[in-house]
Amino acid sequence: MIRSRKMPPRKKDAAAAARKAPAKRKLAEEFPPGEVLIDSAKKQWKLGLPIGQGGFGRLYLADVNSSKTVGPDAPYVIKVEPSENGPLFSELKFYMRAAKPDLIQKWTSAHKMKYLGVPRYWGSGLHDKSGKSYRFMVMDRFGKDLQKLFEDGGKRFTHKTVLLLGLRLIDILEYVHEHEYVHGDIKASNLLLHHKNPDQVFLVDYGLAYRYCPEGVHKDYKEDPRKCHNGTIEFTSVDAHKGVNPSRRGDLEILGYCMIQWLCGKLPWEDNLTDANYVTDSKIKYGDEISTLMEMCFPGKKKPDELGKYMAAVKALGYSDKPQYQKLREILSQGLKALGTKDDGKLEFSASQNGEMPAKDKKRKMLKPSDEVLEGEASGEAEVKVKKPRGRPAKAPASPAQSPPPKGRGRGRGQKR
Q: Is the per-residue pLDDT at 20 higher than 50?
């Protein structure tokens, strides 16, 4: 799905669409602090204050059940939604298969890593209250999302920070890919800092995660018009634009677009996101002419050669090829060396580092520090109507990894506080 508002059905199809439309998804009622939830392993969790809500669920501070009140320093969060909704169920498939703490710890130890930016899954289950059933999931607590930091910093990150983020994302994606999944929706609003360590970044929102290689068998390349343009339109891969199931090269392509945007402030096709065909054609064109893409994004400036080399390496991948993750890391590390620095793990975010925000960007709605929303759910930003390609169905397709997404699901925002 495109992370945008669906086009309305034509009048002659309106009645049929109304008959087929899914029931409106409900927001979970707010539970009081102290409510105890029991997961499928019979472990008890106590809720603290709610810290966010999205279109379909609520997010609470949480801790293991005890006589103590859950305070503001709680190490966990619990996401709760009515059990009939669906989005959380889709994420659970990934978390239960690939994000258990022992799996992540085993990987980090084997690869001698300080940390891995994949949220740990601590439990899940169903909770009945007032005759209604709710699904919940327990996971790590996080802090600010990078989209807010990007906007507060004048829509620029420092060159060093961009490369460090790229290195951490390659680490994350290698882990996710080796566990048979691809993410499919990498972007700043799905990247959250640790709530106590601002140098640690985590990739969240696995609502579009797709099991591309079940039991070691890679899915075949197949274009499907019903699945065109899945993901967030400015970043999604050319494969996704063509309706092809996500793959490893697609995740790395999306990361490339993110890094370019974070460094230059704007992708060449961002002025025309309402036309999916234009965005698709632009990405295909610039994929064949990476030097032109670099010139468009960094006119008259010293070009970040490492980003061009990264994009070229990703574009050379076949659909089912296993990426050379270490080669991609080395490309970005050479970029750090050219800057006279190295991978010290220190991310730099400053609202003043790049001067004042451009006037035209100040008009965009920004979250206040008190705003709280769930990862992967509506943030209140204006939605974008998308012009569907001619000859393709107007109905937005379902993600191949989940049931049809509920209306109103927009650009993701992360946990805050």
A: no
